Amino acid sequence: MKNSTGHDIADALGLLLRRSTRAHLYTTLTDGLGEAVDDLTYPVLSGLARTGSCSAADLGREIGLDRTTVTRRADRLERAGLLQRRPDPADGRATLLALTDDGRAVIGATRQRLATGIEDSLAAWPQADARDFARLLRRFVDEGPFGDEGASATGRD
C-alpha cells in the first residue's frame, strides 16, 4: 500500500488520542493528589501550566472544552486552592485563571509521574532507540500535521 506508513502512524495516533486512553492516563497521573484533581480537572491544570494565566474561554480553546465546562472545573480547583481567579490587567471586566503554588506542585507531580511511566515503558529499549524515538517524535510534532507549519499545510489554523 502506497501510504502504509501514514496509515500505521494514523492508527497508532488514533489509539493514543482516544478519549478512553486519555481518561485512563489522567486517572493514573492524578491518583491520590486530592479530591478535586481527577481526569476531568487535570486538563484544566495542565492547560494552565502550558498557557499561563488566561481566560476560561481561551483555556477552553487550548484544551478543547467550552468556557462553561472550564468554569465549572475551575470552580472545583479553586475551592481546593489549586487555581485562583485574578482580574485581567488589560480588561478590568475580565477574569483570568491562574495556578497557585499548590496547583504548580500538583502539575509537577503529574509530570514526574508521566516522565517516570514513559521511561519505565522504554526501559527494555536500547537507549539509542529511546533517544531516537524522543527526537523523531518531537520532530514529527513540530514539523508534521500538528505543528505550526503542518497546520498551514493541512488547512488547520
Order of helices and strands: HHHHHEEHHH
Order of strands across the main sheet = 1-2
Q: What is the count of DSSP helices, taking H or I runs of 4+ residues?
A: 8
Largest sheet: 2 strands, antiparallel
Percent range for helical residues?
55-70%
Q: Termini separation (Å)?
A: 30 Å
Strand content: 5-15%
Contiguous uncertain segments of 5+ residues? 149-157
Note the overall shape: globular
Average pLDDT figure? 89
Total strand segments: 2
Radius of gyration: 18 Å
Describe this protein with a few key phrases.
globular; mainly alpha; 157 residues; 64% helix; disordered C terminus; two-stranded antiparallel ribbon; 8 helices
Account of the 3D structure:
The protein is mainly alpha-helical and 157 residues long. 64% of the residues lie in helices and 10% in strands. It has helices at residues 4-17, 19-30, 42-51, 56-63, 67-79, 101-121, 127-143, 148-153; strands at residues 83-88, 91-99. The protein has a two-stranded antiparallel sheet with strand order 1-2. Helix 3 (42-51) crosses helix 4 and helix 4 (56-63) packs across helix 5. The protein is globular.
Task: Give me a quick take on this structure.
This protein has helices at residues 4-17, 19-30, 42-51, 56-63, 67-79, 101-121, 127-143, 148-153, and strands at 83-88, 91-99. The protein is mainly alpha-helical and 157 residues long.
Map the helices and strands.
Elements: H1 4-17, H2 19-30, H3 42-51, H4 56-63, H5 67-79, E1 83-88, E2 91-99, H6 101-121, H7 127-143, H8 148-153
Antiparallel strand pairs: 1-2
